[in-house]
Amino acid sequence: MTRQKQGSLVVIGGAEDKEGDCKILHRFLRLCGGREARVLILSTASTDPSAGEQYGAIFTDFGAHDVRILAVPSRKEANQGEFKQVFAECSGIFFTGGDQLRITGILGGSRLGDALRQAHCRGAVVAGTSAGASVMSETMLVGGVDDATPKKEIIRMAPGLGLLRQVVVDQHFAQRGRIGRLLAAVAYNPEMLGAGIDEDTALVINEDGVCEVIGSGTVTIIDGRNVAHSNISESRPGQPLALTNICLHILAEQYCFHLNKRNVFLPAAKEETSR
Fold first, then answer.
1. Is 249 one of the annotated active-site residues of the chain?
2. In the predicted model, what is the mean pLDDT of residues 206-215?
């Protein structure tokens, strides 16, 4: 029996270009099938029912075969049986920004949430920007203090959708000075990778766990697997965290990172990531 190919993930740090080259949005659509793409835009993260309309117009202008916007405001609506067929026909799913807790609170355990997972497992590409990026993690950041010294109480975390395992994502990363809170998240469990994604920047992740950086900014990868010492368990409220022997990568466009092997591929060696 041939194993179904899981779809790629496009994890966007927010504020992606929507008027110029639109490099990130074009890449998403190409992964979905280009002019054959059937795209579902989920604006659940926002209380504004028109939140998905801009993306709908963009993907339509790009020539997508079919674009639908789902503004699902409640769990009652998320449990409608019709979503099974709607998601069975799509090749791409796009989460807009807003509040990631609205996404998990409405979709988690619902028929819509189940249909989304099944679509991704059979090959549909899933993209998300800003809150839509954070929610892809198994454990997601839902709040924290920007531009702060790493301390264990500066962040709040919650279960995410679990499309991206053993990675915690933060967005608007450099623009809001969020390295302190991502370090704190990794200190909670150094087995998790931290991925801080700048605005107008994305990680494109294939089924083998190979990530490619695209866009105008950078992606910061924090790997705590080899941390030699952390004071997180004994630190007092307000006390700075100490972490030793932590590994940090700053990756620009065309650089790749293997989530499973935890190594970096330079642009000249990009072809090797697929071998």
1. no
2. 97
